[in-house]
Amino acid sequence: MAPLELHEKVLVAKDFLETTHGSMACTDCHGGDNKSDNMKKAHVGMTADPTFPDATAACGECHAEEAKLAKTSLHYTLATYKPIVHQRASTDPEKLQKLNQGMDNHCYSCHASCGECHVSRPNFAKGGFISGHNFNKTPDQTNQCTACHGSRVGNEFTGKTGSGDAHYTKHDMDCMSCHSTKDLHGDGKSDHRDRYDVKGLSACADCHQLDDSVEQHAIHGDKVSCYVCHAQPYANCYGCHVGLDSKGLAYYKNPDEEELFRIGLNPLQDEVHPEKWILVRRTPSVPTSFDFYGKELMPNFDRLNNWKYASPHNLQKKTSQNRECNNCHGNKDLFLTEDKVKPEFRKANAKVIVADKLIPEKQAEAEQKEEPKKKRSYF
Amino acid sequence: MKRLTHLLLVAIMVLAVVPFTAAEALAEKVFVKAEQVAELIEAGAPKLRVIDCRLEEKDYKKGHVPGAVYMNVRKDLRMKGAWDTIGVRRQIEAQEELFGRQLGIDSDTMVVLYDDEGWDATRLFWELKYTGHEKVAIIFGGWPEWQSNKLPVSKDVPKIEPALFVADVQPELLATSSYIMSKMGDPNTVLLDVRPPEQFKGDAKHPAAKIGGRLPSAVNAFTLANWENKTYLKNPAELVEMYADLGVTPDKEIVLYCNTGYYAANSYFILKALDFPNVRVYDYSWVEWNGKGHLPKIVGKAK
Asked: In which order are the strands placed within the sheet that holds B219-220?
C-alpha cells in the first residue's frame, strides 16, 4: 500500500461538511476553542483522535452500545497478550516489571480506535484520512484492515502469497463479508483466554451448511478443522526479538520466516473448536524475545505452546492436500511430528505434537475412487 | 613421438565429446538438476555458460556456481519503451551484443541459469528463447538447491571470450496488443493474467500503471503461487489440474500477460515445463494496455 500524500492525510473534503458528522462543530469531538482567533489558543485541549483511549465522549452520545463495547474490544485493549506472556514470566517483581516495559513499548504500542477503522488509516500505517474525513460505516479492506493485518492475513487473502483466498478471488468478498461487527467490536467481556475466545465469532458454518452431501465432510465431520483441508501453506515466523534503537525507537527483528503447512492436535478442544485435528502456526515468541530489557524474563516458557491454532486466510475449494486421500493419510510431511519441533520447544508443544502412531493410515489404493493418475516429472 | 602426440589428441577429443553430449541432452528439458550441472562443470564441459541471475551482485561475489557469470536481469534487461512501458524486451541488436559479446553465448552454447527468487532466471529464459536460442535450462531449486546439496562454490569471476550471437527471432512466442485484439473471443485462445489476484481485480496496481484493472475475458493464476519456497516448482500433476480448472489446457493457445512482462515470462517457463506447446508472452502487458484508450478494459478501483 503506497503511503498517502501529505495533503491527502489532512485535507477535509467539502462533501464531509454535508454529512451528519460534518454538520457538527470540530470542537464537539476534537476539543479546542473555536471561538479564539489565536491559533495557539484555539488548539489548547485539542486531540487528534478523540476516540482513543475512550470513545464514550466523542461517539457515545449517538453510538452508545458501540462506544461501550470499544472499551473491551481487543482492537482497543489487546488484552490477551499480557495474560499469555505472564504465564511464561518470572515471578521476580523486578523482572516482571522489565517484561511489562518491553510489552508496553512493543506489543501495546499497536491498537486500533474507532477513528482508525472508520475515518483514517491506523497509526500503524502512518495515519491520514482515507476519504477527506468522511466516515465509512464498514472499514476499508486495503486502507484499514490490511494496513495492520497485511503481512500475513492480507497477503494470504489477496494472493500476494499463494493463490489467494477464493472468497476474495472468486466471489468478490472482503474482510467485512465474513467478519461481523461482533468480531471487531467484541462481546463486552474483558477476560478472554485468547483472540478466539470471543463469543459469536464468525465461522465457516455461518454460510456453508456442512451436511453429508459432500462425502468428505461426512467422513471427517467435526474431527478435522475446515482449514486442514481447504487452506494453503501459510507464513510461520521464528524468533522475534524486540528492542529500542539509539534514538529510542522500538524495533522488531524476525529474521526467519517460512511458508509451511502443519497439521497438529488441538490442545483446547471446546464447544467452538471441537476438532481433534487443526492447523498450527509457529508463532514468533521465544524465551529470549524480550532479552533487550533483561535476561531470563520468561523462565516458564514451557507452560504454553508456541505452535498455535492457525486460521489461514487463503482458503480454496481444491487444495494440494484434498485432491487425494493419501495426500494427507500416511503423509508424515504434513503433520507436526516431533522431529519438526526444535528440541528446546518439544516440552512446550507436547499437546500439539503428533506422535507417528497417530498419523492416519495410508488408504488402500482400491478404496480410492479415482483412477491413479499418470506420474509426471520435470526430468 | 608423432604417434604419441596423435594418441593424446584423440584422447583429448574423446574426453571433450562426452561432456559436450551430456550438455546437449539437457536442452530437451527446461529444468536441469543441480548435481548434473556440477558434474558437467567438474568434467570441464565445453560450450557451457552458467549465468547467476540473483538479484544482488554482492551475493554472487560471496560465492557462486564455479564458472558462472553474473547478470542482473532486472537491470540489464529493463528499458523504457513506448506508451511508458517498462521492463520490455530490448532491441534485437542490443540482445545480440549482450548475449554474444558480453556473455559469450553462440548458437552451440548450452546456457544454464539460476537465481534465488524464482523469477529472474525465467525472464532471461524467455528472452533467449525469443531470440532463437534453444539450448537453455534452469537449475531446479536454483541457488538454494545448489547450497543444500553442498555442491562446489567459487568466488572466481571467469574471463569471457566474446562470441557471435545471431538472433533468430521467434514471433510465435510474442503477443502484442493488436494480436490480442485479433484473438478476443476466439475459443481456442486463453488470455491468462498471471499477476496477484488483487491486481487482476483492480484493487491494486503496478506503480507504472495509471489505473487498476484487467483485460476482458482473462482468467487469473498468479505465477509465483506455482512455486514452493520460491525456487521449487510445485508438483506438475497438481499444476496441470489447477490450470485445467481455469480452462488453460495444452490444446489451446495461451497468451500470458502481467504488468511489465516479468511475471508473464515466469509463467511461460512454467507452462513449458508442463509441456504446453503454444504459449505467447504479451510483454508490454497491463502497463501498456491500461494507457491505450481504445483498448477494452475491466477497470478496478485502484487509481
From this structure: B219-220, B189-193, B253-257, B279-282
